[in-house]
Design a protein that fits this description.
The chain is an all-alpha fold and 165 residues long. It has helices spanning 7-35, 39-66, 76-90, 95-126, 130-164. It is 84% helix and 0% strand. Helix 1 runs antiparallel to helix 2 and helix 2 runs antiparallel to helix 5. The protein binds zinc ion and fe (iii) ion (2 copies). The site of one fe (iii) ion has 6 residues, from helix 2, helix 4 and helix 5.
Length: 165
């Protein structure tokens, strides 16, 4: 990417970064589904995988609208977060502990995305792109809802089960 000159360039730069993040997550979530034991947790991940595919699709639409190529960047932060999750799984913890740990790793991912999309909504509004702002806000709301659902699952059943195991 060439020299970033204005808010619009920065907007495009962050769009490409989160595009890479979503693509990585689409690949990683099936592994998290496979490695979680709690039925509700599996379901929550399955639902979020479908949402994540939508998130990527929305970014594709925005890229098309803006006439920019979304590929070519790697989100190193997401790469690192996924790597930590994979390394945790490799440690082969007890199943209940594994579920609790996978939730923690997934929530770090969601928080990263919430931060990214929050910025993107602000940038979209800043450059006067209402349509993109609307799409990005929709994704932001879904990331927040996914995060809240995971918090609820962790507090209600998964952490207490890990504690008593
Ligand atoms: Zn997403
Ligand atoms: Fe990133
Ligand atoms: Fe997400």
């Amino acid at each position: 990417m060439g020299k970033l000159k204005n808010l619009e360039d920065l907007f495009h730069h962050h769009l490409k970064d989160v595009y890479s993040a979503e693509k990585q997550l689409i690949k990683a979530l099936p592994k998290m589904i496979k490695n979680s034991s709690n039925k509700d947790l599996k379901k929550a991940f399955e639902e979020h995988l479908e949402e994540t595919k939508e998130h990527k699709k929305r970014l594709d639409e925005i890229g098309k609208e803006l006439g920019i190529e979304m590929t070519g960047e790697t989100c190193e932060a997401m790469k690192g977060l996924i790597k930590e999750a994979e390394e945790f799984i490799k440690e082969n913890p007890d199943l209940d502990v594994k579920d609790a740990g996978i939730i923690a790793d997934a929530q770090r991912v969601e928080h990263y995305e919430i931060s990214a999309y929050g910025t993107l909504v602000t940038y979209a509004k800043g450059v006067g792109n209402k349509d993109a702002a609307k799409k990005l806000q929709k994704t932001l709301d879904e990331e927040s809802a996914a995060d809240k659902k995971l918090t609820k699952l962790a507090k209600k059943s998964i952490n207490p089960t890990a504690k008593s195991a």
